[in-house]
Amino acid sequence: MAVPISQMWTVASYVIKQRLKGEKHFPLVLMLEPLFRCSLACAGCGKVQYPPHVLKRMLTPEECFAAIDECGSPMVSIPGGEPLLHPKIVEIVNGLVARKKYIYLCTNALELKRRIHEFTPSKYLTFSVHLDGEREHHDFAVCREGTYDIAVDGIKEAVKRGFRVTPNSTFFDGTDPNSVRKHFDDMMAIGVEGIVLSPGYSYDKAPDQNRFLGRARVRKLFRAILSNRKKSWKFNMSPLFLEFLMGDRNYDCVPWGMPAFNIFGWQRPCYLLQDGYVDSYKELIETTNWDEYGVPSGNPKCANCMVSCGYETPAVIDGFGTLKGFWGMVKGTFSTYKDSHALKLLSEFQTELHGPLVQIEKPEEKLEETRA
Ligand code: SF4
Ligand code: SF4
């Protein structure tokens, strides 16, 4: 695992403290969405389809600080939309760093190189750069040619300036695991801290509904990608969560571990689903019927989900909250997961050639339309 010791220690002591206090629900990562507007319109995105008047709205720094002060999680993920389009993003980041929160600023990196000088390197700040694989695959996934090269340039600049950087990849049906493994090599050679990866969630608002994976196919794909690992690969995620993706472990969804706050309020129950909003974190925890979510609930919206906002929290709690889990985490950190069956799987996955790149929506026009 590539997470620095100080961050691991902060998270471990937080989890242990919550368990000793007997807290049933506690937040690990606040998913803070300061805006939904973006400079891209990816085929698998469930966030940028709002009407222009919604895309114009943004959280103020004060609203962001009130959210983190109320929920108290040790980590904050800032997705979107594209956070670097928020005019006060530097003030938001600095305020969170001052609160000693470990921040993952998720960005498509189109603006990263231009704005990087506004940020100060810190152990609390990581740029989590959206990069869905090698050049051809990434440009296809985000529906715009040239974005891979811009993002990689941004990553190199951030690494050069001493920032923590983690490329963040989402994989859909048709992903070639051989290409993903090559992508890992490329990223580690650039000098990123570690890799973050996830299967896509089947947003019903996403423009392309044919690319989402069911659970069995997620496990097969991630087993092919993550078995027989190279020692040079580092992951900025719980090794137990990666084992969950490979089908070696089972966890139930813990949506309260990564509560989501955006311009509408606290989103019920998680970053992915929108079953209403409430005004406070307390209300979210106390009035949500958590039993209605996750696979055992039979909720069809959860049936195929294996996304980190539901399943990484139980892996982290397992890893830091039980001796068996901790030992599994240590073993997972150093194992290469040798698996001859998975090697055969690699040759089974055919490189499915993509059709011509389709621009779902012209981003320039969308920006014009939605600029605040
Ligand atoms: S980069 Fe793509 S997935 Fe991310 S918010 Fe923008 S449109 Fe959505
Ligand atoms: S299973 Fe996925 S969609 Fe359902 S509540 Fe959990 S994280 Fe959200």
What does this structure look like?
The protein is α/β, with parallel strands linked by helices. The chain has one domain (5-370): Alpha-Beta Horseshoe (pyruvate-formate lyase- activating enzyme), CATH 3.80.30. The protein has helices spanning 5-20, 52-55, 61-71, 89-98, 112-115, 135-141, 147-160, 177-190, 215-226, 239-246, 281-287, 308-321, 323-334, 340-348, 363-370, and strands at residues 29-32, 75-78, 102-107, 125-130, 164-171, 196-199, 260-262, 265-269, 274-278. Strands 6-5-4-3-2-1-7-8-9 form a nine-stranded mixed beta sheet. α12 crosses α13. The longest helix has 16 residues, at 5-20. The radius of gyration is 19 Å and the shape is globular. Mean pLDDT is 90; it is low at 355-372. One iron/sulfur cluster binds next to α12.
Can you lay out the helices and strands and say which pair or pack?
Layout: H1 5-20, E1 29-32, H2 52-55, H3 61-71, E2 75-78, H4 89-98, E3 102-107, H5 112-115, E4 125-130, H6 135-141, H7 147-160, E5 164-171, H8 177-190, E6 196-199, H9 215-226, H10 239-246, E7 260-262, E8 265-269, E9 274-278, H11 281-287, H12 308-321, H13 323-334, H14 340-348, H15 363-370
Parallel strand pairs: 1-2, 1-7, 2-3, 3-4, 4-5, 5-6
Antiparallel strand pairs: 7-8, 8-9
The structure holds iron/sulfur cluster (2 copies).
The site of one iron/sulfur cluster has 14 residues, from α12.
